[in-house]
C-alpha cells in the first residue's frame, strides 16, 4: 500500500498531532463521496454534515497534502480576478451575486476556527503593498470597488503609514484589510478534518480515486475499495491528474515556492512586521510574507508553470526576501518547499456539474485559501437544491489552454514573462 508523507515543509514540521487515518478497504455506501481532503473537500464535508448528509472523503495522500497545507497561509479576500473584471465578463446582475460572496470565505474560516476551536495561529490584518504609483492607483480603485460591495474594513496607507507596519523601503504605499489575515494553513485543514469526524464524517487517507463510474448511482473506485454514493464532489484541484479528463483540459498546475527562516526572536520579528500583519505586493508575479506563531519569517513568490519542482528553491526566493529585508542577510533558512496551485486561463474558479450528480470546484489560480471555504458552502447548497449561488459561479466562461495540454506551459510562461517585465519596467 502506498504511503505518501507530507513534503518537508515548516507546516508539516509544526503540525498539531492527529490520529492515523486508514486507507479504504472494501465497499462503503454514503450520500456524498468527496474526492480530496483539502480545503474545498473539507469545507464541503462540514457544510453537508451540518445539514444532515452522510459524507465520506477519500484522499490520495494525507489531509491538506496539496495546496491547502503548503500555501503562504494568507487570508486574502475576493478572487484572483477582481469583481470589476467579472462584471465586464458576465454583466452587472451576475457580478452582483459574486461580489457579495467575495468576502465570505474569510468569514467562514473565522467561524470554523471559533466553532470548532481550531488551533491555527489565526491573526487579523493583511497588507497589499504598492511598489509604484500606478499600483497605488489600482489599490485606490480596488478600495472603492470593494466598498461598493459592502466591504469596509479597508485603510489606504501612504508611504509614511506603510513604514509603520512593514520595515521595507520599497513600498510607496498600500492598503490594509483588517478582514484579511493569516493562519497556519495545515493546522487549519487538520482542525477542519477533526471537525468533520466529530460530526460523523469519515476520511480515508492514502486512498486515491482511480476511476469514477458515472451513472445514476455513481461509484468512486480506489486501489482496494469503492464508495457508492448519491453525489460525488471532485475537489482534487492541482492534484487531480487525469481522473476527470474534461477538467484537466481547462486548467494547469503551477508551482509556487516558499522558504521559512530560523526563529528570529521577538525583537527582530517585531522590527520587520510590528503589528504581525501579513503582506503581499501588487506585482503580477507577487511576493508574499508573514511571521509564524514562533516568529519565523515565511516568504514566498515566483511561479513555475507546469508544476516542476525547481532544484534550489532557496536560490530563487532568498534574494527576493533580502531585497525586502536586507537586515536578514545572516539569517539561516530552515525550510524550503514548493506546492502546486491550479491556474485557469481566465484566472477565475471553475465550478460546475457533470451529468446529474458529479459536482466540482477547481482552479482558484492562487487565491484559494478563502475561495475554497466559500466553494464548500456553495457546493453544499447546490446539493440541497439551492443552486442560485452555484449557478453564478457555473456561469463564468472557461476556455481550454491554447495548444492543448502540450503547449499550455510555454504559452503561460510567455504571458507571465511579459507581465513580470511590465512590473519591472513599471508600466
TrEMBL record:
Residues 31-381 form the FAD dependent oxidoreductase domain. The keyword Oxidoreductase applies. GO terms for cellular component: cytoplasm. The keyword Oxidoreductase applies. One of its GO terms (molecular function) is oxidoreductase activity. Keywords: Oxidoreductase. PANTHER family: GAMMA-GLUTAMYLPUTRESCINE OXIDOREDUCTASE, SARCOSINE DEHYDROGENASE-RELATED. This is FAD-binding oxidoreductase.
Amino acid at each position: 500500500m502506498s504511503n505518501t508523507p507530507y513534503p518537508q515543509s515548516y507546516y508539516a514540521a509544526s503540525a498539531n498531532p492527529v490520529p492515523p487515518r486508514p486507507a479504504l478497504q472494501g465497499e462503503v455506501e454514503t450520500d456524498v463521496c468527496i474526492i480530496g481532503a483539502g480545503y474545498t473537500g473539507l469545507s464541503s464535508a462540514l457544510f453537508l454534515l451540518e445539514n444532515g448528509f452522510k459524507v465520506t472523503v477519500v484522499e490520495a495522500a494525507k489531509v491538506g497534502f496539496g495546496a491547502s497545507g503548503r500555501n503562504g497561509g494568507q487570508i486574502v479576500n475576493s478572487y484572483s480576478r477582481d469583481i470589476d473584471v467579472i462584471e465586464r465578463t458576465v454583466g452587472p446582475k451576475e457580478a452582483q451575486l459574486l461580489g457579495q460572496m467575495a468576502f465570505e470565505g474569510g468569514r467562514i474560516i473565522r467561524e470554523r476556527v471559533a466553532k470548532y476551536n481550531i488551533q491555527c495561529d489565526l491573526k487579523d490584518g493583511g497588507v497589499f503593498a504598492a511598489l509604484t504609483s500606478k499600483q497605488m492607483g489600482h489599490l485606490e480603485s480596488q478600495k472603492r470597488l470593494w466598498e461598493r460591495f459592502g466591504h469596509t474594513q479597508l485603510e489606504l496607507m501612504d508611504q509614511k503609514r506603510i513604514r509603520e507596519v512593514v520595515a521595507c523601503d520599497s513600498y510607496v504605499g498600500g492598503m490594509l484589510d483588517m478582514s484579511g489575515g493569516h493562519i497556519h494553513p495545515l493546522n487549519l485543514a487538520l482542525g477542519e478534518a477533526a471537525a468533520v469526524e466529530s460530526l460523523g464524517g469519515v476520511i480515508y487517507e492514502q486512498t486515491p480515486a482511480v476511476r469514477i463510474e458515472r451513472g445514476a448511482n455513481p461509484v468512486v473506485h480506489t486501489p482496494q475499495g469503492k464508495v457508492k454514493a448519491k453525489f460525488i464532489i471532485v475537489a482534487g484541484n492541482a492534484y487531480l491528474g487525469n481522473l476527470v479528463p474534461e477538467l484537466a483540459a481547462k486548467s494547469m498546475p503551477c508551482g509556487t515556492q516558499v522558504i521559512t527562516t530560523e526563529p528570529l526572536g521577538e525583537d527582530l520579528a517585531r522590527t520587520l512586521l510590528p503589528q504581525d500583519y501579513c503582506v503581499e505586493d501588487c506585482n503580477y508575479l507577487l511576493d508574499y510574507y508573514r511571521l509564524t506563531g514562533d516568529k519565523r519569517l515565511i516568504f514566498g513568490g515566483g511561479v513555475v508553470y507546469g508544476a516542476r519542482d525547481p532544484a534550489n528553491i532557496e536560490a530563487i526566493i532568498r534574494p527576493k526576501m533580502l531585497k525586502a529585508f536586507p537586515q536578514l542577510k545572516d539569517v539561516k533558512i530552515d525550510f524550503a518547499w514548493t506546492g502546486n496551485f491550479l491556474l485557469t486561463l481566465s484566472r477565475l474558479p471553475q465550478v460546475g456539474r457533470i451529468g446529474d450528480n458529479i459536482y466540482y470546484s477547481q482552479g482558484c489560480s492562487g487565491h484559494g485559501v478563502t475561495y475554497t471555504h466559500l466553494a464548500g458552502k456553495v457546493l453544499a447548497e447546490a446539493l440541497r437544491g439551492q443552486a442560485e449561488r452555484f449557478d453564478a459561479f457555473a456561469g463564468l466562461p472557461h476556455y481550454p489552454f491554447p495548444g492543448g495540454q502540450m503547449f499550455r506551459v510555454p504559452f503561460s510562461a510567455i504571458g507571465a514573462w511579459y507581465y513580470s517585465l511590465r512590473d519591472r519596467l513599471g508600466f
